[in-house]
Amino acid sequence: MTTPQVLLLDPLPADADAGDEAVLASLRFVPPTEPILTAFDAGAGRGDGVFETVGVSGGRARGIDAHLARLEASALKLDLPAPNLAQWRRGVDTVLDALPPTGQASIRLVITRGTDPAGPPTCWLTGTPVASDFPERTDGIRVVMLSRGYANDVGEDAPWLLVGAKTLSYAINMAALREAKRRGADDVVFTSTDGFALEGPTSSLILRQGNTLVTPAIQHGILAGTTQADLFNFLEAEGFECVYRKISAGELRRSDAAWLVSSVRLAAPITAVDGTAIPTDLDLTARMNAALLA
Ligand code: PLP
């Protein structure tokens, strides 16, 4: 396993049509132990920034177009300068080239507000090899349902909550995962105060109800998941009906199968909700993960 890679990116304006030489000159590998932030960076001090985590398998960054589009959408929601997507794509390719050609890895893209709100954002990418045998993909995960503390339509009245942006402020999500561990579970399904199942702290929720797969619609206070979107394409081609809508918390307990899905862990079947076992569909899970890794 190679060491993690860290690539600094000197941001170009979004509309700059820079040649390859200029783009390459804006990228610089640094040793993983080298400090890259000042203590005054808004990303470190306030979690003020955005990120993406991209799964890598077979030398390919899965769903890179969707991740770049979401990075841009998140940056714009935070009034950060729009990223130059060609430059970021080149950054991803550069990190990919430095990772082992086989096996699985994750690439993280980070933009912080930097040290001066009027100045350039701080930008970097990391590449980290990961173990390819995530036991959760076959053994499943036990979840608890935890309130996120607001209604599913909160984003409409309070856009400053940045619902749907992938911000660096994940302290709440990590706290929820610790609470799950305290309750003897592995992961979380957040619920809205008006009784809807939303998403996990780092994953999207998919339920199977007979031949129909359902996931919460993104207007209901969640992040648009790239893995969920890829899976819906696969599942539709397999003949399933795929639906975006509100999902009541009770529907999760009554589903024929349920998963939390995300870019690196992929599809993890939910085996229990708040201590009560629910059915799993291990055959479909295996096919979903094989499709994502193909
Ligand atoms: N929802 C949240 C809150 C997340 O943090 C993530 C990923 O980290 C997801 C959903 C799943 O998104 P993706 O499938 O693009 O990894």
Summarize the structure.
By secondary structure, the chain is an alpha+beta fold. It is built from ten helices and 15 strands. Pyridoxal-5'-phosphate (PLP) binds next to strand 10, helix 8 and strand 13.
* Mean pLDDT across residues: 95
Q: Structural class, judged by helices and strands?
A: alpha+beta
Number of helices: 10
What proportion of the residues is helical, as a percent range?
A: 25-40%
H-E order: EHEHEEHHEEHEHHEEEEHEHEEEH
Question: So what's the overall shape?
Answer: globular
First and last CA, distance: 22 Å
Beta-strand portion reads 25-35%
Low-confidence parts: none
As a whole number of angstroms, the C-alpha radius of gyration is 19 Å
Number of strands: 15
Largest sheet, in brief, is: 9 strands, mixed
Task: Give the names of the bound compounds.
Answer: pyridoxal-5'-phosphate
Write the layout of secondary structure elements.
Layout: E1 5-9, H1 20-25, E2 27-30, H2 42-46, E3 49-57, E4 60-61, H3 64-77, H4 85-98, E5 104-112, E6 122-130, H5 136-139, E7 141-147, H6 154-157, H7 171-182, E8 187-191, E9 199-200, E10 203-209, E11 212-216, H8 226-237, E12 241-245, H9 249-254, E13 257-262, E14 266-273, E15 276-277, H10 282-293
Parallel strand pairs: 7-8, 7-14, 11-12
Antiparallel strand pairs: 1-2, 1-6, 3-4, 3-5, 5-6, 9-10, 10-11, 10-13, 13-14, 14-15
Bound molecules: pyridoxal-5'-phosphate.
